[in-house]
């Protein structure tokens, strides 16, 4: 859901026009690396239950940390290739 506007922008950058509705599109030929990471957030199912009502813990941190770690690793690898 949150990735929609970014994917629309990527499509418009590649094809220089608005995306078609109800049509499959191909974002493989991007001149840049494109990736999507998905994780569960603390969006509450009810007003009384979310991550903020319990004691502060590391619940939910693992997925965010793993995504951040992977992005930083890819950046470091790319920079190392440029230095060689």
How would you concisely characterize the structure shown here?
The protein has 2 helices and no strands. The protein has helices at residues 4-15, 61-83.
Keywords:
84 residues; mainly alpha; 2 domains; DUF6909
Estimated helix fraction:
40-55%
SSE order, as H and E? HH
Number of helices: 2
Q: What is the mean predicted local confidence, pLDDT? A: 78
Low-confidence stretches: none
InterPro entries: DUF6909
Can you walk through the features of this model?
The protein has 84 residues and is mainly alpha-helical. The chain folds into 2 domains: 1-34, no CATH class; 37-84. The chain contains 2 helices and no strands. The longest helix is centred in the C-terminal third of the chain and has 23 residues, at 61-83. The protein is flat and about 40 Å long. The model has no long low-confidence stretch (mean pLDDT 78).
């Amino acid at each position: 859901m949150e990735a929609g506007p970014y994917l629309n922008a990527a499509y418009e950058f590649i094809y220089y026009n608005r995306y078609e509705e109800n049509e499959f599109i191909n974002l493989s030929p991007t001149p840049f690396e494109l990736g999507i990471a998905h994780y569960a957030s603390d969006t509450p199912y009810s007003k009384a239950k979310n991550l903020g009502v319990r004691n502060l813990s590391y619940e939910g941190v693992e997925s965010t940390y793993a995504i951040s770690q992977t992005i930083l690793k890819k950046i470091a690898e790319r920079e190392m290739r440029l230095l060689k």
